[in-house]
């Protein structure tokens, strides 16, 4: 199941409470982002052991910018990011966001 994040405060709380989770930066108007979102959703449905969250870039621009700045990751959309213990362990963008790449990210970052 996907959780939606809207604010910096929600994200900061997540960093404190979740050991490991995925976050997808998602554009509501981009076809590539829509395809990535479908792959991300497939992953979330099949692998409920790792929490999955998303933000809609158009609705949560301050949060999207905060993540890019705080973790020194160039903003892209769509963009999937794996966080573990408050740090970025993996990220991918555009067509590289697939169910398979998400599974691989977890296995490479146990």
Automatic annotation (TrEMBL):
Database matches in SUPFAM superfamilies: Thioredoxin-like (SSF52833)
InterPro entries (UniProt xref): BrxC, Thioredoxin-like_sf
Signal peptide location: none
UniProt protein name: Bacillithiol system redox-active protein YtxJ
Species: Neobacillus pocheonensis
Gene: ytxJ
């Amino acid at each position: 199941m996907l959780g939606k994040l809207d604010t910096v405060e929600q994200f900061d709380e997540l960093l404190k409470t979740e050991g490991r989770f995925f976050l997808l930066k998602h554009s509501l108007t981009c076809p590539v982002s829509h395809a990535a979102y479908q792959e991300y959703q497939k992953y979330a449905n099949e692998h409920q052991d790792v929490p999955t969250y998303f933000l809609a870039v158009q609705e949560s621009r301050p949060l999207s910018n905060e993540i890019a700045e705080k973790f020194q990751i160039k903003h892209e959309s769509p963009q999937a990011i794996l966080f573990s213990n408050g740090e970025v362990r993996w990220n991918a963008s555009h067509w590289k966001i697939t169910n398979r790449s998400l599974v691989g990210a977890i296995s490479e970052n146990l």
